[in-house]
């Protein structure tokens, strides 16, 4: 499959909430990872504003299917003029290999607006003694690097980065990290952990590396075993779970699987006699009707409510809302933690009412 060489497109596709953006530059980072810099037209600047650590979702046609994949931005909104995502090859990865082999500067890609809840925000300024400890494993450095650059630019907080890789050749952003450490010797400490020299990172090593950083704000992204090791070690030390932020990516199923799952969930919810949805949005309350089997998002859109959403596939988290009263059924979830589910959060695009009345609140 070759890259799409498309004519100058219109701004976007309101029906799918996706836009075509042009690739401004391609940067080969390592032998199996490259970055794509995207050109955002002026009329879409606000739509593509992002927070350090968020990701973009790409829709790519493969063998007659439209696959969706998420890639974190390695760029920083505080430092970089254009957004940049970094894509590492995955064995058998249909989209990641295509991104690395076929995409060229000048190509157009179908992109969803920024999303994700793994980001640096103002509330983190009050974390502990204002320390920031970042853990990146392999290509998991991407959102962590975005956070690191913004923190260096916008604050004086001490920052420690622990970056694990197979070997020196697989270290992404090696030169940039070296330059940043040299430019900020009093603020930034970078620790490289290489499997080829040190073996896999252990819980005991994590505890040693964070000694003296109790109460810091932690951000973790990388392979699942790496993240589990780091998170488990931090929790074992008594660190507050609210200050441990973990980014977990799961590739969405193929469209035919999604359709089958949606049909089963719709059938299961078709008998629910939901009489009304009470929706709190932007400080206002709306009482709307719902059709049997429709998701919360479908009902809100049918009523003309401008609720937040993006992928509509259950993996970006843009449509998170809280069930204040009533009951719902969640078909698919790759975003919400066990604690968030316990606190009543759900995904409007994947959730259907299962009680006569449901009261929802979208974040302000």
Automatic annotation (TrEMBL):
Residue ranges annotated as transmembrane are none
Domain FAD-binding FR-type intervals: 16-121
- What is the name attached to this protein's record? Ferredoxin--NADP reductase
Domain 2Fe-2S ferredoxin-type intervals: 275-364
Question: Which sequence ranges form a coiled-coil region, renumbered to this chain?
Answer: none
Q: Which cofactor does it need?
A: [2Fe-2S] cluster; FAD
Report whether Ribosomal protein shows up as a keyword of the record: no
Organism of origin is Zestomonas insulae
Lineage, broadest ranks: Bacteria, Pseudomonadati, Pseudomonadota, Gammaproteobacteria, Pseudomonadales
* Keywords (A to Z) from UniProt: 2Fe-2S, FAD, Flavoprotein, Iron, Iron-sulfur, Metal-binding, Oxidoreductase
UniProt xrefs under PROSITE patterns: 2FE2S_FER_1 (PS00197), 2FE2S_FER_2 (PS51085), FAD_FR (PS51384)
């Amino acid at each position: 499959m070759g890259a799409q060489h498309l004519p100058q497109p219109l701004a976007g596709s309101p029906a799918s909430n996706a836009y075509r953006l042009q690739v401004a530059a391609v940067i080969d980072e390592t032998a199996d990872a490259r970055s794509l810099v995207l050109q955002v037209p002026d009329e879409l600047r606000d739509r593509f504003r992002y927070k350090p650590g968020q990701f973009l979702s790409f829709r790519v046609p493969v063998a007659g299917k439209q696959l969706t994949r998420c890639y974190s931005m390695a760029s920083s909104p505080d430092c970089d003029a254009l957004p940049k995502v970094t894509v590492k090859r995955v064995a058998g990865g249909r989209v990641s290999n295509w991104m690395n082999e076929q995409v060229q500067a000048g190509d157009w890609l179908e992109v969803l607006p920024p999303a994700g809840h793994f980001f640096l925000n103002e509330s983190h300024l009050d974390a502990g003694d204002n320390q920031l400890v970042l853990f990146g494993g392999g290509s998991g450095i991407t959102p962590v690097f975005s956070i690191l650059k913004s923190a260096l630019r916008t604050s004086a907080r001490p920052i420690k980065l622990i970056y694990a890789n197979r070997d020196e050749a697989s270290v992404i952003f090696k030169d940039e990290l070296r330059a940043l450490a040299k430019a900020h010797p009093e603020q930034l400490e970078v620790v490289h952990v290489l499997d080829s020299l040190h073996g896999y990172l252990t819980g005991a090593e994590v505890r040693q590396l964070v000694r003296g950083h109790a109460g810091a704000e932690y951000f973790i992204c990388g392979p699942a075993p790496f993240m589990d090791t780091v998170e488990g070690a931090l929790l074992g030390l008594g660190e507050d779970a609210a200050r441990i932020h973990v980014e977990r990516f799961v590739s969405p199923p193929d469209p035919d699987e999604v359709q089958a799952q949606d049909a089963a969930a719709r059938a299961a919810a078709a008998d629910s006699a939901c009489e009304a949805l009470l929706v709190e949005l932007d400080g206002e309350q709306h009482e709307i009707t719902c059709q049997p089997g429709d998701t919360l998002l479908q009902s809100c859109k049918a009523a003309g409510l401008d609720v937040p959403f993006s992928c509509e596939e259950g993996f970006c988290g843009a449509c998170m809302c809280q069930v204040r009263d009533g009951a719902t059924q969640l078909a698919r979830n790759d975003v919400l933690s066990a604690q968030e589910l316990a606190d009543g959060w759900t995904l409007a695009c994947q959730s259907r009412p299962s009680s006569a009345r449901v009261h929802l609140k979208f974040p302000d």
